[in-house]
Amino acid sequence: MHIEIYSDYVCPWCRIGKKNLFDALADWTAEHGIQPTLTYRAFLLDPNVPEQGSPFQDWISRKMGGTAPSERATAQVTQAAAAVGLSMHFDRISIYPSTRLAHRMLAFTPKEHQSATVNALFKAYFEEGIDIGSIDHLMRIADSVGLEDTDELASKLLLGDGEDAVAADLQRAQRIGVTGVPFFVFDGKYALSGAYPKEDFAALLNRLAVDSPSGEA
After folding, report:
1. The domain 2-208 is classified under which CATH number: 3.40.30.10, 3.30.200.20, 2.70.70.10, 3.30.530.20?
2. Would you say the C-alpha torsion 70, 60, 44, 86 has a positive or negative sign?
3. Rounded to an integer, what distance in angstroms lies between the CA atom of residue 63 and that of residue 67?
4. Tens-level pLDDT at each residue, the chain (217 residues)
5. CA distance 123 to 129
6. Could you tell me the pTM of the whole model?
7. Which of 54, 63, 79, 99 lies deepest, with the highest CB count within 10 Å?
8. Bridge-partner residues for 183, per DSSP?
9. Would you list the DSSP string of the chain?
10. What is the Cα–Cα distance from 138 to 154, expressed in whole angstroms?
11. Cα separation, 109 vs 24, whole angstroms
């Protein structure tokens, strides 16, 4: 089985959806003895945010239509995150960053480190309020998950390397009709759009197992 995950690191529902998927996968893998392969694909919630980012409170107030609606939205997502064991601290976030650099960094991240890197990016932003649009902060995150030669990685990013990979993901998303994230594609034929609960992911995984009785799921 192969799963494609379209997400953005400033999307709280992407973090929740990924957690629910991985919780379902842990049970499913234990039962079936099959470890699915993963591809993380880039998506930009706000492709127009400047390279240096925008003040978070200004950005979310514009997005939600005012301070009161934005406070209700962040309270709702904080509660939803807590229900699945995740922390969200929107009060610590001062910058809404451009995530293009972070997506480019993941393009150079070895497969075995990608899930840990994605988790670290989510945690840095939503729990610590770190500006993940900053190359210095990204290199600290890369170092924390065990990526080697972060100096070379930083040089590649400063030269613009990895942009082709991000552009390809964005074009692919547009081609298959991804208009919001999280968006999950299973074996290129089943899709779920949104932060579905663990049980819904489990139901789809079981359906895929039935469709592939030979053990090729």
Report:
1. 3.40.30.10
2. negative
3. 10
4. 999 999 999 999 999 999 999 999 999 999 989 899 999 999 999 999 999 999 999 999 999 999 999 999 999 999 999 999 999 999 999 999 999 999 999 999 999 999 999 999 999 999 999 999 999 999 999 999 999 999 999 999 999 999 999 999 999 999 999 999 999 999 999 999 999 999 999 999 998 887 765 444 4
5. 9
6. 0.95
7. 99
8. 6, 193
9. -EEEEEE-TT-HHHHHHHHHHHHHHHHHHHHH----EEEEEE--S-TTS-TT-EEHHHHHHHHHTSHHHHHHHHHHHHHHHHHTT----GGG--EE---HHHHHHHHTS-HHHHHHHHHHHHHHHHHH---TT-HHHHHHHHHHTT-S-HHHHHHHHHTTTTHHHHHHHHHHHHHHT--SS-EEEETTTEEEES---HHHHHHHHHHHHHH-TTTT-
10. 9
11. 25
Delimit the domains of the chain by residue range: 2-208
Structure tokens at 125: 């932003």
